[in-house]
Amino acid sequence: MRFLSEEDSAALVTEELAYGAVREALIAAVAPTSTTFPALPAHGSDPRNRFTLKSAASANLAGVKIGSYWPDNTTGPRHNSTIILLDQDTGRVAAVVEAAKVNAYRTAAADAVAANTLANPNATTLTIFGTGHQAFYECQALAKIRALDKINVVARTEANGHAFVAELRNANLPATLTEAEQAVTEADIIVTATTARSPLFEADWVRPGTHVASMGSDAKGKQELPPDLLITASLYCDLPPQSTTIGELQHAPKHRDITAIGHVLTGAAEGRTAPDQTTVFDSSGIALQDLYIATALLGLIG
């Protein structure tokens, strides 16, 4: 059995590796040879300690990602991720990859792949809702695929907002703390990376042509976007059955067409067709992303 520790996987991962692996995974997700199984929520001995099992199989990979959240952990990250790859011939464990930092790259890479596919090519202003661990990686990943000249940060508390702006500026990203309405009306790309359970902004603040990504809705009851936006925008996601069950699109009208981004990447479906088309991408996070990025990391060490 092969093993990659958290320290080793964190040292190996890059935005470029994550982008390539996640793009490949999103394409694989829509192939007839792939199956993504329903996410299984669970908890530890203390019910506040939660974890989710996400599993999948493709033509040449099968395995599971265990994503955990231990809110009182003070010895390391409260969010952790462990990826288990199974040997396709024997069913035994072929590899274990500890992937807390990798998971942040993997999640942000899905955002970047979708934005590179759906956002206007001349998009320069990003608005980010959220100031937590994941929000930083979202900004970094999007800065790789669009020439951002402004990042509007919308924060729940002013102190967190100022701290996050400073963190982004230290990474040479042009961040400014901005009120929600101004941030949305100025945006070419809007990203929500929160744990919200109610909409973060109003639908009529969104300019035509904006690309919107919900990155935080990954459980029943979570909600970041206004329902009216899901009525009028073109809707895309990583995988429709999961997105409409635990993702942001659980709040979309049942009659709306929802397109898997993998079909756009292969040319089987249309993406953006006009500059004034408003697009929404819902990333609920699928297991194939984890299996593919784990395989890419293991490939670096032979």
Describe the structure in your own words:
One of its GO terms (cellular component) is cytoplasm. InterPro entries: NAD(P)-bd_dom_sf, ODC_Mu_crystall, ODC_N. This is Ornithine cyclodeaminase family protein. The chain is α/β, with parallel strands linked by helices. The chain has two domains: 2-103 and 288-300, 2-Layer Sandwich (ornithine cyclodeaminase, domain 1), CATH 3.30.1780.10; 107-286, 3-Layer(aba) Sandwich (Rossmann fold), CATH 3.40.50. The chain is 34% helix and 24% strand. The protein is built from ten helices and 15 strands. It has helices at 6-12, 15-28, 100-118, 133-145, 158-170, 180-186, 229-232, 240-246, 261-266, 287-300, and strands at residues 2-4, 35-36, 40-43, 50-57, 62-69, 79-86, 93-98, 125-129, 150-154, 175-177, 189-192, 211-214, 234-237, 258-260, 279-282. An eight-stranded parallel beta sheet has the order 10-9-8-11-12-15-13-14, with helices on both faces. Strands 1, 2, 3, 4, 5, 6 and 7 form a seven-stranded mixed beta sheet that branches. α2 (15-28) packs across α3 (100-118), α2 (15-28) packs across α10 (287-300) and α3 crosses α4. The protein is globular, with a radius of gyration of 18 Å. The mean pLDDT is 97.
